[in-house]
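Q: Sequence in, structure out?
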Amino acid sequence: MILRNVTDEDLPIFFELQRDPEAQRMAAFASRERDAFMTHWRTNVLRAENVTRTIVMGGVVVGHIGSWEQDAMRLVGYWMGREHWGKGIATRALSEFLVLEPTRPLHAWVALNNLASIRVLEKCGFRALRNENPHHPDGVAEALMRLGST
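A: Exactly. Output:
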């Protein structure tokens, strides 16, 4: 597995990955239309202050991982193509990414129904801090997880 810098050629792959309805359900995240997706990535995600990498396995782009500042916290998130779930790739990618992103504490929001992602985070040392209101405006119950002390 390789974590490499994101290239323009990766963006159409990432766009298709985020369109998968099952992945959207698990991540509790709605997909964007193509133009909005590309604009978001080029203006928000691929900023100098963010750390963003493409996950490559066997020469194939299988997902992405990154960190950014939001609400006075450093957050981490990742997205894997469904055909690569359950193979330990996300755990390995996050473990390697944590070497690139030394900021601690590091936080992650995860949907409570996404048990696989919760396990990935726990295997990499993240611990749950609190659950959001199950009646959150978007209807998604989430846990905030943290790696490192405050």
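The first helix runs from residue 10 to 17.
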